[in-house]
């Protein structure tokens, strides 16, 4: 009840001072009194899953990005489709988002520890923080206190695609109050771990932009390897060819050698708007590590439209 009243007071405050940004409600250690074990339970369960499958880190990063970019960070991506509503998770762009079961398991453990206190939106954020750390990224404090969203519509899902231009993706970030630098960090750095299936870059291998020829900007050795890999099937390949499970700046070094898998990744190194940032990040891993975390926290603070703490992350109360 105490946590519910705390969230209620926050909502009342925002209704009165409606001009203030919603993320003013967030604070590091939000659950220190209402659910002191929350920031221990989440890391333990993510660690267990990571021990079984290291790719879970990339999956959580992807889930966090896909959630925050639609209605802010409000866990709307977790809501299941019903007979009268197709939810975000069933939009085409979210077809490869996974680890919903892990979020369910974490939520169940938190409910046993402190009933209806920790929001699903904060679970995603805390789990992503752990994913970054487990992948070799820095450990960082993340503010919590988000509320869970009441709305989830597949029709609202409009995410940058693998063939988007730098200008298009930059505009998508700008409309959410984020900068070009944030974009280069989150798009490039977010692909430091994880894979892409052939269908996301197949056109670069044979019929780039309808030319009937491969993408001339792709490294020839990489092109040959990917052509042999894809064939008539749809397997996947690591986006970072060298340090595939480590969240570091190596992806930017590969982009400078024209070894980007996705078109948008390679465009980061080719477009004059973003190329200087790629060069700076490629040259300094410490700069990348701290800058990536800062951009991730900034994205995590995008104000959501949440209004409750779900007991079940897959449906409204």
UniProtKB/TrEMBL annotation:
<feature type="binding site">
    <location>
        <position position="248"/>
    </location>
    <ligand>
        <name>Ca(2+) 2</name>
    </ligand>
</feature>
<keyword id="KW-0349">Heme</keyword>
<dbReference type="GO" id="GO:0020037">
    <property type="term" value="F:heme binding"/>
</dbReference>
<dbReference type="GO" id="GO:0006979">
    <property type="term" value="P:response to oxidative stress"/>
</dbReference>
<feature type="domain" description="Plant heme peroxidase family profile">
    <location>
        <begin position="25"/>
        <end position="317"/>
    </location>
</feature>
<feature type="disulfide bond">
    <location>
        <begin position="35"/>
        <end position="114"/>
    </location>
</feature>
<keyword id="KW-0376">Hydrogen peroxide</keyword>
<keyword id="KW-0575">Peroxidase</keyword>
<keyword id="KW-0479">Metal-binding</keyword>
<protein>
    <recommendedName>
        <fullName>Peroxidase</fullName>
        <ecNumber>1.11.1.7</ecNumber>
    </recommendedName>
</protein>
<feature type="binding site">
    <location>
        <position position="76"/>
    </location>
    <ligand>
        <name>Ca(2+) 1</name>
    </ligand>
</feature>
<dbReference type="Pfam" id="PF00141">
    <property type="entry name" value="peroxidase"/>
</dbReference>
<comment type="function">
    <text>Removal of H(2)O(2), oxidation of toxic reductants, biosynthesis and degradation of lignin, suberization, auxin catabolism, response to environmental stresses such as wounding, pathogen attack and oxidative stress. These functions might be dependent on each isozyme/isoform in each plant tissue.</text>
</comment>
<feature type="signal peptide">
    <location>
        <begin position="1"/>
        <end position="25"/>
    </location>
</feature>
<dbReference type="InterPro" id="IPR033905">
    <property type="entry name" value="Secretory_peroxidase"/>
</dbReference>
<feature type="binding site">
    <location>
        <position position="74"/>
    </location>
    <ligand>
        <name>Ca(2+) 1</name>
    </ligand>
</feature>
<feature type="active site" description="Proton acceptor">
    <location>
        <position position="66"/>
    </location>
</feature>
<feature type="binding site">
    <location>
        <position position="67"/>
    </location>
    <ligand>
        <name>Ca(2+) 1</name>
    </ligand>
</feature>
<dbReference type="GO" id="GO:0046872">
    <property type="term" value="F:metal ion binding"/>
</dbReference>
<feature type="disulfide bond">
    <location>
        <begin position="120"/>
        <end position="313"/>
    </location>
</feature>
<dbReference type="GO" id="GO:0005576">
    <property type="term" value="C:extracellular region"/>
</dbReference>
<dbReference type="InterPro" id="IPR010255">
    <property type="entry name" value="Haem_peroxidase_sf"/>
</dbReference>
<keyword id="KW-0732">Signal</keyword>
<feature type="binding site">
    <location>
        <position position="243"/>
    </location>
    <ligand>
        <name>Ca(2+) 2</name>
    </ligand>
</feature>
<keyword id="KW-0560">Oxidoreductase</keyword>
<feature type="binding site">
    <location>
        <position position="160"/>
    </location>
    <ligand>
        <name>substrate</name>
    </ligand>
</feature>
<keyword id="KW-1015">Disulfide bond</keyword>
<feature type="site" description="Transition state stabilizer">
    <location>
        <position position="62"/>
    </location>
</feature>
<comment type="similarity">
    <text>Belongs to the peroxidase family. Classical plant (class III) peroxidase subfamily.</text>
</comment>
<dbReference type="GO" id="GO:0004601">
    <property type="term" value="F:peroxidase activity"/>
</dbReference>
<feature type="disulfide bond">
    <location>
        <begin position="68"/>
        <end position="73"/>
    </location>
</feature>
<dbReference type="GO" id="GO:0140825">
    <property type="term" value="F:lactoperoxidase activity"/>
</dbReference>
<dbReference type="GO" id="GO:0042744">
    <property type="term" value="P:hydrogen peroxide catabolic process"/>
</dbReference>
<keyword id="KW-0106">Calcium</keyword>
<dbReference type="GO" id="GO:0009505">
    <property type="term" value="C:plant-type cell wall"/>
</dbReference>
<feature type="binding site">
    <location>
        <position position="240"/>
    </location>
    <ligand>
        <name>Ca(2+) 2</name>
    </ligand>
</feature>
<feature type="binding site">
    <location>
        <position position="72"/>
    </location>
    <ligand>
        <name>Ca(2+) 1</name>
    </ligand>
</feature>
<dbReference type="InterPro" id="IPR002016">
    <property type="entry name" value="Haem_peroxidase"/>
</dbReference>
<feature type="disulfide bond">
    <location>
        <begin position="198"/>
        <end position="230"/>
    </location>
</feature>
<keyword id="KW-0408">Iron</keyword>
<dbReference type="InterPro" id="IPR019794">
    <property type="entry name" value="Peroxidases_AS"/>
</dbReference>
<feature type="binding site" description="axial binding residue">
    <location>
        <position position="191"/>
    </location>
    <ligand>
        <name>heme b</name>
    </ligand>
</feature>
């Amino acid at each position: 009840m105490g946590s519910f009243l705390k969230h209620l007071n926050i909502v009342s405050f925002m209704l009165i001072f409606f001009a203030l940004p919603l993320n003013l409600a967030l604070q590091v250690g939000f659950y220190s009194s209402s659910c002191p074990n929350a920031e221990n339970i989440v890391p333990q369960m993510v660690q267990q899953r990571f021990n079984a499958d290291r790719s879970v880190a990339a999956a959580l990063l992807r889930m966090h990005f896909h959630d925050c970019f639609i209605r802010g960070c409000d866990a709307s991506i977790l809501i299941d489709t019903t007979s009268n509503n197709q939810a975000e998770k069933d939009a085409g762009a979210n077809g490869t988002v996974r680890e919903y079961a892990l979020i369910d398991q974490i939520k169940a453990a938190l409910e046993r520890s402190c009933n209806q206190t920790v929001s699903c939106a904060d679970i995603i954020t805390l789990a992503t923080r752990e994913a970054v750390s487990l992948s070799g990224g820095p450990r960082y404090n993340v503010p919590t206190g988000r509320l869970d969203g009441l709305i989830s519509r597949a029709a609202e899902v409009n995410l940058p695609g693998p063939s988007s231009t730098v200008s298009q993706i930059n505009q998508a970030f700008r409309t959410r109050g984020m900068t070009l630098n944030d974009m280069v960090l989150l798009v490039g750095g977010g692909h430091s771990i994880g894979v892409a299936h052939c269908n996301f870059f197949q056109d670069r291998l044979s019929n780039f932009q309808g030319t009937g020829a491969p993408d001339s900007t792709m490294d020839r050795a990489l092109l040959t390897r990917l052509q042999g890999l894809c064939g008539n099937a749809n397997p996947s390949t690591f986006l970072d060819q060298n340090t595939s499970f480590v969240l570091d700046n190596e992806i930017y070094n590969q982009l400078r050698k024209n070894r980007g898998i996705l078109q948008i990744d390679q465009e980061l190194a080719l477009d004059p708007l973003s190329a200087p940032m790629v060069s700076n990040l490629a040259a300094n891993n410490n700069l990348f590590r701290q800058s990536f975390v800062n951009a991730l926290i900034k994205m995590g603070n995008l104000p959501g439209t949440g209004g409750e703490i779900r007991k079940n992350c897959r449906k409204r109360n």
